[in-house]
Design brief:
Layout (H helix, E strand, L loop, with lengths): L11 H6 L2 H8 L1 H18 L1 H4 L40 H37 L1 H15 L3 H16 L5 H31 L3 H8 L4 H9 L4 H24 L11 H9 L8 H27 L6
Helix pairs in contact: 3-5, 3-13, 5-6, 5-8, 5-11, 5-12, 5-13, 6-8, 7-8, 8-11, 9-10, 11-12, 11-13, 12-13
InterPro entries: BP-dependent_transpt_permease, MetI-like, MetI-like_sf, OppC_N
Main location: membrane
Family: Belongs to the binding-protein-dependent transport system permease family.
């Protein structure tokens, strides 16, 4: 008599396809379109060196004789400038691809820094409690009285006063990441603190304490995984806010320089030529930024509803 074959455990991909979240995703056509747009824009930014006709960050590839050429489909358009060129002879389409890459890098790293800082402080405040909790939450309450863009401008101004007003592009990118990270940590900390205060009173935490696990291990291995749903929603929505904040700082002249422009810098440059007839210099970067932000927000709104047990 032969033993019956054991049932095979479905793989990670199969479980993801059969999950309720993926089912809800397939039912929402708007979310599928938004996710497709986000994926398309991210891939375009990642593959910018392969797609773009020139590197707009390399002055050797720019020609002033090609400046202010209108889009290809207009009467004055020229090949291969699909969206036209700006005053430096920079191809607008190529500049959008590279600029979107800068905006995404700043946004993702800024959100990552805010998440690490906020989650860490939220875990400590919720698990330890007492005076430590009060101190962290009072700092968070004070920061909530100031808009995020104001805090980012303050941090940007302090760094420039210490390191000099003319920073190179790489240093400016780091400054923007730090400014955005320090502006958005509060929401993570408050959310994680509330969830930890609920989770730490459950039996599995008491069992972990009983067998002598240190508090750091309990917080990271046992409590933190049970708070990832709300954190994921906050990170998705904050990504759009971080990109907007970076674009605002760059538009105000406190962000990325003209030599390595983000989408916000391209909009600021195009704004100077809007009333002189070169509308394409500002229109296409603005459309790209709006499409990216709107699509991320739609995905974030869907994710918030999909992970809300009250709506299941």
């Amino acid at each position: 008599m032969t033993d019956a074959p054991l049932p095979q455990t479905p793989g990670l991909l199969a479980r993801a396809i059969d999950s309720d979240i993926f089912y809800a995703f397939r039912r929402s056509k708007l979310t599928m379109v938004a996710a497709g747009i986000v994926l398309l824009l991210v891939l375009a930014a990642v593959l910018a060196p392969l797609i773009a006709m020139q590197n707009p960050f390399d002055p050797a590839q720019l020609d002033l004789m090609n400046s202010r050429i209108s889009p290809l489909w207009t009467a004055e358009g020229q090949k291969p400038f699909l969206f036209g060129t700006d005053e430096q002879g920079r191809d607008v389409f190529s500049a959008i691809l590279y600029g979107m890459r800068i905006s995404l890098i700043v946004g993702i790293l800024g959100v990552g820094l805010a998440a690490v800082l906020g989650i860490g402080l939220g875990l400590i405040a919720g698990y330890v409690g007492g005076a430590v909790d009060s101190l962290i939450m009072r700092i968070a309450d004070v920061q909530l009285t100031f808009p995020a863009i104001l805090i980012a401008l303050l941090i940007d101004g302090v760094v420039k006063s210490l390191l000099g007003n003319h920073l190179d592009a790489s240093t400016m990118l780091i400054v923007l990441v730090i400014a955005i990270g320090l502006s958005f940590w509060v929401q993570y900390a408050r959310t994680v603190r509330g969830l930890v205060m609920v989770e730490k009173n459950k039996d599995y935490v008491a069992a972990a304490q009983l067998i002598g696990l240190p508090a750091r291990v309990i917080m990271l291995r046992h409590v933190l995984p049970n708070t990832m749903g709300p954190i994921l929603v906050i990170a998705t929505i904050n990504l759009a806010l971080a990109i907007i904040t970076e674009a605002t700082l760059s538009f105000l002249g406190s962000g990325m320089p003209d030599t390595m422009p983000s989408l916000g810098t391209l909009i600021r440059i195009g704004n100077n030529y809007l009333f002189s007839g070169e509308w394409w210099v500002i229109a296409f970067p603005g459309i790209a930024l709006a499409s990216l932000i709107l699509s991320i927000n739609l995905v974030g709104d869907w994710l918030r509803d999909a992970l809300n047990p009250k709506l299941q």
